[in-house]
Amino acid sequence: MDPLKKIKSLTTGIGIYQHGRLNEPNPEFGYALEDQARALIVANEFKDKNLKEIYLNFIIKAKREDGLLYHFYYENNSKGPFKDGSFRNEEHNSKMNIKEAYGLTLWSLLALKNKKNDDIEKIIENLIKDTYEWTSPRAISAALLGLLNLDYQCSAENYLKTKLHNYYFETRSDNWEWFEDYLVYANAIIPWTLWEIYLKRKCKTSFKIAERTTKFLIDNCRQNNVPSPIGNKDWYTRGGSKALFDQQPIDAGYMVCCLEKAYHATKDNIYLSWAEKWYRWFWGNNINNIPLIDENFACYDALTPEGVNLNQGAESNICFLMAYLAAKRLCLNESGTGNIQNNS
Q1: pLDDT per residue over 155-180, tens digit each?
Q2: Fewest CB atoms within 10 A around its CB: which of 10, 15, 120, 255?
Q3: What domains appear along the chain, each with residue ranges and CATH number?
Q4: Nearest-CA neighbor of 251 among 231, 271, 274?
């Protein structure tokens, strides 16, 4: 089975569609910048040149006159790639959301380590300049994961790292070891980034914060020792109650990646054990005891009170592949430790 089969089915000559309708692409919602960026990271790891070219071309085409990027692309009629359609930013999307898309894009471009293309270089330069205004810890974390691909510490890296540290120190308490007063989506990308900073730059402060906040996530994102991402129906606000549903693959995927880095940084088997449990969330080790992966190696969009959301969109499948790659590096499989099934 080709692990990329699902994202290939969602991909056209333009890019990867944002949403699916059951197991088919749903063109109505167009293409989102963040999906191209995450897909580019995955395609790069799989060394799929064709997919890399498609997603990279989307990002280059999305450049605005001010040097930054449009968030979405919508087709009007099918006349071939970019022949009849429009890039635009949706007014209902918050400034924070587009900055998170920018962070992922910066990460994806720097992960390529391709400095021969003037368009890519200019986009990277403009995004780095823009990072100084960002406030979202998820956007900042994604940008740092990109900047850590450089063989030197640039001023933006140090600035953003310090900002993350300060978010933690300004927010934490004895029973709340976190960067914000709430847990929402994609939480694990923040400690994941700090583990990576320690591994690449040997920053002891990043290590300490990563250790405490990873433990906080492990402790607060489980039910009866079973991984349980924070549900998107009201999330989890400090002092409030945790939403159980809907649980999203992005959270499980990022947790596996975070725990992989924690294990490499500490060699503590507790992280390896939890990485296995979180990877198995996709395969039925969840509060519904239902797999989110179908017979075609495609991932459903969410765990719901009724079972699963049967749509199969870009974010879910790309984040599952991120977890798959991390699990493969750790030699995990869906049923426990051991050699992961080699689908590549």
Answers
A1: 999 999 999 999 999 999 999 999 99
A2: 120
A3: 1-128 (no CATH), 180-344 (1.50.10.20)
A4: 231
